[in-house]
Amino acid sequence: MSHYLGCWGCYREGGTLKKYLLLTSLALLILVGLGIYQIIVFSDGKLHITVCDVGQGDAVIIRTPKGHVILFDGGPDRRVLDCLGRALPIWQRSII
């Protein structure tokens, strides 16, 4: 009997359902937390300038207080995309 106590909820009827509900709730809580973190970090109403090394020079990413994004000199290949991924919030995937 004692070896069943460690996983008591697993052997009851509905134990697996409760486990999945708990895991789903935890994942949802983590996603909401990440969303709130992104909003706090990227919606501060300030001008942000990021400079990225793209090989032949530097790309400059400007994010305005209103949320517009401007890219200067993106370089000859796709290296600037890594920098854009770090400089922009997860929901913003377009630039002016």
Characterise the protein shown here.
A three-stranded antiparallel sheet has the order 1-2-3, covered by helices on one side. It is built from three helices and three strands. With 96 residues, the chain is α+β, with helices and mostly antiparallel strands. The protein has two domains: 2-42; 48-87, no CATH class. The chain has helices at residues 8-11, 15-42, 80-87; strands at residues 48-53, 58-63, 69-72. 8% of the residues are buried.
Number of domains: 2
Write down how many β-strands occur, each being a DSSP E stretch of 2 or more residues.
Answer: 3
| Biggest sheet details | 3 strands, antiparallel
Separation of the first and last Cα atoms = 66 Å
Rg value: 22 Å
User: N-to-C SSE series?
Assistant: HHEEEH
Task: State the secondary-structure class.
Answer: alpha+beta
Counted by DSSP, the helix tally is: 3
